Amino acid sequence: MIFKIGEEGSRARQGLQTREADSRALIENLSAGVMVFRPNHTLSSINSAARRFFGWSPGGANTALAEPTGPGWQMLREDGQPMRRHDMPFERVLATGQPVKSVVVGVPVGNGDEVHWALFNAYPENNAQGGLRHVVLTFIDITSLKTAQAEQKALQAQLSQSQKMEALGTLAGGVAHDFNNILAAILGNAELARQDLSPDAPARESLHEISTAARRGRELVRQILAFSRQQEQQRV
Predict the structure, then answer these.
(1) Taking the model in full, what pTM does it have?
(2) Average pLDDT of the segment spanning 174-194
(3) Sign (positive/negative) of CA torsion 55, 60, 62, 65?
(4) Pick from 131, 135, 151, 134: which is nearest to 143 by CA?
(5) Which of 28, 33, 110, 224 pairs as cysteine with 50 (C-beta 3.0–4.6 A)?
(6) Which of 60, 76, 66 has its CA nearest to residue 42?
């Protein structure tokens, strides 16, 4: 009877070890990052996806959670500013004992020139007595999504600027047409006034200057119309 109980206990231990091994293998091969911390900030386990995200070697990782000011654990908010320590998912779970969901965090890697972005979740793992045993962090890499969003934002800014320039060109074209009509009236009346004067009249010089200035204004109008794409430019 004692032998039978011992045999059953051995099978139970083997079954438990097998399930634990299967769980570790499953976590290790997840595409999402998984990190398990003890309440004293030491790292209990980490999978390959998390190592890759933080730029750690496959063979190991830091065994303790460094201060937030350290280069390995500096975290950024969505706006790119440093995240305060009490806002970090790990610290929030420690402080409240409640899960934290869907927090976008940026992590500088390498020399800090590159930033990896992830969507973090954190939750407490309690022991049988209800005390905090571990804090589990899980996250998915959204760096490519953030990059695409930044590129889309830049394209939208370029489109907005292009639309502003198009509107400015339309406005400039309308103003230029009106100004051209005014210059035509000035030139026409200057010519009529010149015909009414004798050849040696002193006012002829003034009328000549008026006509010259009006023709310069017409050249400016031509350039404005070319800018507004209402008149083709000619290469000279």
Answers:
(1) 0.56
(2) 84
(3) positive
(4) 151
(5) 33
(6) 66
